[in-house]
Amino acid sequence: MPKLKTVLVTGGAGYIGSHCVVDLLQAGHEVVAIDNFANAVGDEEGSPALRRAETITGKNITFYKADVLDKAQIMKIFDRHSIDCVIHFAALKAVGESMQQPLLYYQNNLLGMLNLLEVMRSHNCYQMVFSSSCTVYGEPEYLPITETHPTGKITNVYGRTKYFIEEMLKDLSAADEKWNIISLRYFNPVGAHPSGMIGEDPTKEFTNLMPFMAQVALGKKPVLTVFGSDYNTPDGTGVRDYIHVMDLASGHVAALNLLSNNHIRLKVYNLGTGKGVSVKELVNVFEKVTNTKIPLKYVERRLGDITAMWADATLAKEELGWTTRYSVEEMCTDFWRWQTMNPDGYPKKSKTSVIVNGKS
């Protein structure tokens, strides 16, 4: 068994969380997952995504419907389980929504982390992998971006919540040497599990690019809205570093392995492919691999967006032993498999059993 045996995964029913849970189980970890279904599909029996993760792996997940804003609720879960490490995904995450509802984002993301850290400390659990974001870099001063790139000049509220939490973790690890934390700065997760059983099923109108694109390809939406066609990029559309969600998941397992064997206090790693792809380029690849046509509608730039961003992930390769494996074509193919197998996303009701509150 891994040294960090039992892992609490907050936001475990969400897009990235559910894919990470699959990799954690396959690596031999025991998973306790929580989610309040703010960004994920839930039903009266728990999480459809996590039930499918159990099917994929043949292993059980202990799931609680819980909210990190409810400190007493989180305390009870720690009382019930011997948690060795926390992977903290739970956060509101839409850039556009964050600009419209800043107080909601500050309350949920900052207070949720504070509650979690206090509960962890009270139970002598000091190992954490934090889900951060490349948005902490703001408009890049140079590309590709390394972990030493300045942070703080951030263009949106969502990114500022991630930045403030990173600063909080710096202060915490400096004040108390017991803490052992890795902050993973994600670039742009896309794709789905190759089985097509789990994938991204947005619960809000503020959705990511690929789910929207797939809905257009299915004929469920008329056009793909592209925010900005006048950026200083080769084709005028924004450039991002798209990373397959399963590559992102394996990065968390690699981070856990490093934490279990080293006391690093606090370390930051970029998780990206190191290649920039424009919105138009991604659409072209998606059309090619799915044999569909996606009409585009160009509108004004979205408040809070930047021109271009891609990672230098050398440090993760050298210290975590982690590299990406999936191509842009595979990202599109896997997402299309998920979408065509599940055109309406997860079923909203299921009779398959799930472990809820420690009981099946």
Automatic annotation (TrEMBL):
UniProt organism field: Diatraea saccharalis (sugarcane borer)
EC code(s) of this entry: 5.1.3.2
Segments forming domain NAD(P)-binding: 8-334
One cellular component (GO) term of this entry: cytosol
Family statement: Belongs to the NAD(P)-dependent epimerase/dehydratase family.
Pathway listed: Carbohydrate metabolism; galactose metabolism
PANTHER family: UDP-GLUCOSE 4-EPIMERASE
CDD domains referenced in this protein's UniProt entry, alphabetically: UDP_G4E_1_SDR_e
Pfam family, one: GDP_Man_Dehyd
Record's catalysed reaction(s): UDP-N-acetyl-alpha-D-glucosamine = UDP-N-acetyl-alpha-D-galactosamine; UDP-alpha-D-glucose = UDP-alpha-D-galactose
GO molecular function terms listed in the Swiss-Prot or TrEMBL record: UDP-glucose 4-epimerase activity; UDP-N-acetylglucosamine 4-epimerase activity
Function: Catalyzes two distinct but analogous reactions: the reversible epimerization of UDP-glucose to UDP-galactose and the reversible epimerization of UDP-N-acetylglucosamine to UDP-N-acetylgalactosamine. The reaction with UDP-Gal plays a critical role in the Leloir pathway of galactose catabolism in which galactose is converted to the glycolytic intermediate glucose 6-phosphate. It contributes to the catabolism of dietary galactose and enables the endogenous biosynthesis of both UDP-Gal and UDP-GalNAc when exogenous sources are limited.
Subunit structure, as described in the record: Homodimer.
Cofactor(s) essential for the protein: NAD(+)
Protein name per Swiss-Prot or TrEMBL: UDP-glucose 4-epimerase
